[in-house]
Specification:
The protein has 331 residues and is α+β, with helices and mostly antiparallel strands. The protein contains nine helices and ten strands. Mean pLDDT is 83; it is low at 300-305.
Length: 331
């Protein structure tokens, strides 16, 4: 437990409590000096490798035997970033560089009093993993199997970090499985595209109505102007259902091929020009994307390349649809 100040460090006289600026502080009557208790700066480092987080096992109080991020006090004469990198090397043997500040948190310790935790994301540039003098072990833990942590501020920072990385990891999963006909259910469920899927399902009727208003007056889809709304509604409904299944990883290319080949033949038999058919299909994509962006659903916490990935997957779907629609129309 943190010890109280009883004597003045300058004259050795007994200190007492006195208010200054409405704050009760230690005061030396002989020196007429106040003593200020400022929070101590504590630094932590998040080092991730392949969705595993570097943790060290504490070998001394407080929280001996518990795991934590490489953590320690900043020393006089060093920057806060230098302190984080020093602690990383001292406790885990890793040389690193700062990527960014992840979290700042206030914490009251019974050992040290008020603390300010500053947690940085770091990248390894050298060194070899080993446990330092203050630690009994150093190792990487999977992000989904982290042990109980010694410090609340470590957990808070790691929660924020993992949340910030989930979309990135989902993109990598999509890229890794891009050549497969369907995505594994677990990956499809956790992927970034669930946002677009959820929006499309929840707002399907509104998207269809917007498309109908457009396709029935658009100069590029003249043949559709006289088609019954119910017929067009059902076609658009089928296409949206196929898209959500595709994005969700449970629709294969064969089903899409069969549907659009048949639809192309039907449109040709009904006297529709190919340009109008393709334009109507393109308008569906336009209204899905426009509606999602209007809801701000794809902009929050979404990096530019993530938007490109969503656009890429939609493009693949509609390219397949366009090809077989054309093929069916030409047959």
């Amino acid at each position: 437990m943190k010890k109280k100040r009883l004597f003045c460090p300058y004259c050795g006289g007994i200190t007492l409590k006195k208010y200054e600026d409405n704050v009760r502080r230690d005061f030396c009557p002989a020196c007429k000096s106040f003593f200020y208790e400022n929070p101590l700066p504590v630094v932590s480092a998040i080092l991730e490798s392949s969705r595993q987080i570097l943790l060290v096992k504490r070998d001394r109080a407080p929280s001996k035997g518990f795991w934590c991020l490489p953590t320690g006090f900043a020393e006089a004469g060093e920057s806060i970033e230098e302190a984080a990198l020093r602690e990383l090397e001292e406790e885990a043997g890793i040389k690193g560089k700062i990527v960014k500040l992840m979290d700042v948190d206030s914490y009251k310790s019974r050992f040290y009093g008020d603390l300010i935790f500053l947690t940085f994301v770091v990248q390894q540039i050298g060194g070899k993993l080993r446990a330092g003098d203050d630690c009994s072990e150093a190792r990487f833990w999977p992000v989904n199997k982290l042990p109980p942590l010694a410090f609340r501020s470590n957990k808070r920072a790691l929660d924020a970090y993992i949340k910030s990385r989930k979309d990135y990891w989902a993109i990598f999963d999509l890229i890794e499985h891009k050549d497969k006909k369907t995505l594994p259910p677990a990956i499809a469920k956790n992927s970034l595209t669930r946002r677009l899927v959820n929006i499309t399902i929840k707002n399907k009727e509104k998207i269809i109505e917007q498309w109908l208003e457009d396709v029935m007056i658009n100069p590029s889809t003249i043949e559709y102007h006289k088609v019954e709304r119910e017929v067009l509604y059902n076609i658009c409904d089928r296409i949206l259902s196929q898209l959500t299944l595709w994005l969700g990883g449970v629709q294969d290319v064969n089903k899409i091929r069969n549907f659009y080949t048949k639809l192309g033949r039907e449109r040709k038999k009904s006297g529709f020009k190919l340009s109008g058919v393709l334009s109507a299909l393109s308008l569906i994509r336009k209204h899905i994307w426009t509606y999602a962006l209007a809801q701000d659903a794809l902009q929050k916490n979404l990096e530019l390349y993530m938007t490109f990935e969503l656009q890429r997957r939609m493009t693949i779907f509609f390219d397949i649809a366009t090809f077989y629609l054309t093929k069916g129309h030409e047959d």
